[in-house]
Structure formats: C-alpha cells, structure tokens
Amino acid sequence: MTALKALLRRWSVLGRLAELPAPMRLIVLGQLAFNTGFYLVLPFFALHLTRDLGLGATLVGLLLGLRTFSQQGLFFLGGALADRFGTRPVALTGFVVRIAGFVLLALADGLPLLVAGTVATGFAAALFSPAVESELARRAGELERAGGPAGPTRSEAFAMFGVAGEVGVVVGPVLGSVLLAVDFAVTSLAAAGVFVVVLVAFARVMPREPAAHAGEPLLGGWGRVLRNPAFLAFTAAYSTWLLSYNQLYLALPVELERVGSAGVLGALFVLSAVIVVLGQIPLAELVRRRLGTRALPLGFGVLAASFLATAVLIALEVPGPVPAVVFVVLLTLGQMTVVPVAQDAVGRLAGERRLGAHFGVLASAGGLAVLGGSSLLGALLDVDARPALPWAVTALLPLASAVVMGVLVRRVPALRAPVPTPERTSS
C-alpha cells in the first residue's frame, strides 16, 4: 500500500502539486482558471458574431485577428512591465482588464464595444501570462537550486502548469456549451466571474515583493534580450512549435472536412487534452532522468514526424480521419516533450535575469511565426489537388528547429544536457 501511494503521488498532478509552495501552487491552479474562463467564450465567439449579431466573415476575421495581435503580439510589452513593476501588480492589472473585456463583450451590440472588448481580452493575457510564467520560472528555479532530494524541478513545475491548462481547455468549452444555450452574454459574464475569483486569489496569496528590476529602464530588458544571441537563436527555433500547434485550428479542420469527418474535430481536441493530462507528468519525469535538454531536438523531431506521417498517409489515400488522428497524437507527444524543457531553458539562457522580457519576447516571436506561416500554409491548403503538400512543407519547419536545437544543446553551456541523475526519493 505504501508503494502504491508513493507511485500515485509521484505520477499524479495533485500529488506533485502539493509539493509546491503556495504562490507556485496558485500559479499552476491559476492556469486552469485562465483557460477555463477563456475557453468558456473563445470557441463560441465567432458563432455569436455571425448568428446573433449578423456580422460578415470579413469583420469576424478582423475581430479574431485583433484578439490574436493584442494578446500574442504584445507579450513582449507585458513581460517588460512585469520586470519593471513586479509580477503581482502587472498580473492583477491583467485580470482586471480581462474582466472588463468579458463584460464589454457581454454588453456589446455593435462594433465599437466589440472591438473594445476583443482588444481588452487579448491585451489582458499579454499582461498576466508573461508575468505569471516568469514568476513560476523564478520561484521554481530558486527551489531547484536550493537542492534537496524532494520537490519538483522547474521543468516538472511547468509540466504541471501545462496539465492544468489542458484541463481548462476541456472544462471551458463544456461549460460554455451549456451556458450558450441560455445566452452568449451569460457565458461572457460567467467567464468574467472566473477571473474575479482569480483576481481575489492572487491578491490574497501572491506576496507583495519589490520588482526584480525596479528603478531600471523599461527598455533594459529588451536590450538584454537583443544582446543574447543564444537566446535569439533559441527563440527563432522555438517559434515553430507555436506554428505547428496552431495547425490544430487551421490545417486539421481542413483535412477533416476534405475526408468528410468534420464531426470528429471536437473529439480530437479532447483526445489531445486527455493525453496531456494523463501523460505529461510521467513524461516530464522520464525526460528529467534520461534526457535533460537533449529532449529539445527529439521533441521537435516528433513534431516534424507528426506532419510528415500525415502527409504520407494522405498521399497513400488512407481513408477517413486516420491521418488526422495520427497527427494529433504525435503533435501532442511532441508538445509534451518540448514545452516544459524549453520553458525551463528560458531561465537558464536569461541568466535568471529579466525573465519577464525573455518570456514575453519568446511568446511574441511565436505569434509572428503563426501570423506569417499560417498565411503561407493557408494558401497551400487551398490547392485541393495536392492535399499532402502543406503537411510535407510544414514538416520542414520543426525539422529545422530540431537541427538548431541540437546545435544549441551541444554548444551553449546554459543548455548543455546534464548527466542523468539517479531518481530522487520523496521525504
């Protein structure tokens, strides 16, 4: 029985979560709330715009583009603000802005309020996301450097962060579909309510601490980033991860529509989330013990394989949604391998300084990659006669990242893979 309890504690999210100090535990659980509140609304936003408000496709596309730009494109600003003014005030401001954005969307019956609400919900994440990620990186790094046989490493803490987010991705749309039967305004106000709870929790639990770089110039963090060629190369290579992941929203629906299986799209999203929830913690433990940073080129190789395998299956005319299922499974495994290790590596490459600026630039670079790459891939997806082509072309991008990551892991001291350590025991 003791051995069984130890096994469950080691592999379960809740068991590992209990080992975190309260502020880190709040950040992980906060990620669950962030995604629950966000996905209460996002999957149904376009439907509300077209069905309830009668907007055309052009305006809908403009509003969705504004949301993406105001969030992903401005992460670099939120990260710099977190360094200068501190995680707590910037995150709390972001929560207030997100609440205001959802309230505006609930009240909006015309374009001005829709634009204001859309921009506010996006910019809010640009404030709180790099703030909480850099705070988790800082605290987890300090905990790991303090030593001791027990407690999660920084990469394992980010693995828990990812699992919590995936639970929110599943829970949010389920609750949203129920509330949408009442009214979209109710859904938006419920999402605002989730962030009110988050706001109160962070205000009570997150300690008041001086900003890591208070009194220093706001632009100092960006200057430090630009003077770090290893981090810039890492950022460029890592940006293909977000572009690859974004094909769940672009290429995957097109492929399912092509084979007449559009109805399974939701099930595939659930499949991806279940794989992360059940497998992320044990995989992170395995990576820590066996691979270290060598998991980065391996993970990008798996991402490339997800697109290449899909292209081959499409070219062989394998029927039904089989290529799509293979894509989702391999893409998710690549995600689980890459993301926790990469987020840990950001702190090391940054020298544990200006973490907000580094996380912000990392996220904004991914947004730019999605903006440019998805336009190209969208044009390739329109070529109906060669459905395997966009998948084969996309495979080249994470494959190039795998090569770059392999070089960085070998040559950059901060990324050099450590010798695997014996398995730790819990105290």
TrEMBL record:
<dbReference type="InterPro" id="IPR011701">
    <property type="entry name" value="MFS"/>
</dbReference>
<keyword id="KW-1003">Cell membrane</keyword>
<dbReference type="InterPro" id="IPR020846">
    <property type="entry name" value="MFS_dom"/>
</dbReference>
<keyword id="KW-0472">Membrane</keyword>
<feature type="transmembrane region" description="Helical">
    <location>
        <begin position="389"/>
        <end position="409"/>
    </location>
</feature>
<feature type="transmembrane region" description="Helical">
    <location>
        <begin position="157"/>
        <end position="178"/>
    </location>
</feature>
<dbReference type="GO" id="GO:0022857">
    <property type="term" value="F:transmembrane transporter activity"/>
</dbReference>
<feature type="transmembrane region" description="Helical">
    <location>
        <begin position="184"/>
        <end position="205"/>
    </location>
</feature>
<feature type="transmembrane region" description="Helical">
    <location>
        <begin position="322"/>
        <end position="343"/>
    </location>
</feature>
<dbReference type="InterPro" id="IPR050171">
    <property type="entry name" value="MFS_Transporters"/>
</dbReference>
<feature type="transmembrane region" description="Helical">
    <location>
        <begin position="90"/>
        <end position="108"/>
    </location>
</feature>
<feature type="domain" description="Major facilitator superfamily (MFS) profile">
    <location>
        <begin position="23"/>
        <end position="418"/>
    </location>
</feature>
<dbReference type="InterPro" id="IPR036259">
    <property type="entry name" value="MFS_trans_sf"/>
</dbReference>
<dbReference type="GO" id="GO:0005886">
    <property type="term" value="C:plasma membrane"/>
</dbReference>
<feature type="transmembrane region" description="Helical">
    <location>
        <begin position="26"/>
        <end position="47"/>
    </location>
</feature>
<keyword id="KW-1133">Transmembrane helix</keyword>
<feature type="transmembrane region" description="Helical">
    <location>
        <begin position="264"/>
        <end position="283"/>
    </location>
</feature>
<feature type="transmembrane region" description="Helical">
    <location>
        <begin position="295"/>
        <end position="316"/>
    </location>
</feature>
<protein>
    <submittedName>
        <fullName>Putative MFS family arabinose efflux permease</fullName>
    </submittedName>
</protein>
<dbReference type="Pfam" id="PF07690">
    <property type="entry name" value="MFS_1"/>
</dbReference>
<keyword id="KW-0813">Transport</keyword>
<feature type="transmembrane region" description="Helical">
    <location>
        <begin position="355"/>
        <end position="377"/>
    </location>
</feature>
<keyword id="KW-0812">Transmembrane</keyword>
